[in-house]
Amino acid sequence: MFFEPKNGHGLPHNPFNAIITPRPIGWISTRGTDSCDNLAPYSFFNGVSYDPPQVMFATTGSKPDRDFGKDSLANIRDTGVFCVNVVEEAAMEAMNISAGNYGREVDEFSRAGLTRTQCDTIDCARVAGAPAALECRLTKITTLPGKDNYVVFGEVTGIHMRDDCLKDGLFDVTCFRPLARLGYRDYSVVREAFTMKRPGE
Q1: What pLDDT, on a 0 to 100 scale, did the predictor assign at position 39?
Q2: Are 60 and 90 in contact (CB under 8 A)?
Q3: Can you list the alpha helix ranges (DSSP code H) found in 62-158?
Q4: The CATH classification of domain 20-187, taken from the options 3.40.190.290, 3.40.190.10, 2.30.110.10, 3.30.1070.10
């Protein structure tokens, strides 16, 4: 099968997200200028550089109670900071609850029954007990073609790692089994890993 997206796919559901899988989930926490905390998952997320360490996530769509994208995007624009929390298998239900389309006044930490703790290098909350969290300062918001499509870039200024996830000096994802986004409403869990050396190593 071949199709041009501009002409439609003719399938029951758009296969685009199902092709680009698995995708890590950036559970983005922000704090508004009104001191209201926000937490939302984004599956268009990844690291983009080592030195300095930088990450990106993309957000699409808008909200009627915001003049600029969604709550996460508006908060980051206003404060210049955000935190990326890693989603473990044990937190899948809480992550899903935080994905709801709530009003800007709703605190997803409370709605999902999560404990929050303060970040160290930025004025923002993070998910207490998450396997890892990346404290970030905004470097750039880029507008993409289409309606309300944005990419947020941030420099990582602080990294939290849960002690039980460190094995022999390595961050072991199989200890907490990270959640990954597939297509449609599907997810997966990383339960095993293997190692391959590059040619010449």
Answers
A1: 98
A2: no
A3: 71-79, 92-98, 108-111
A4: 2.30.110.10
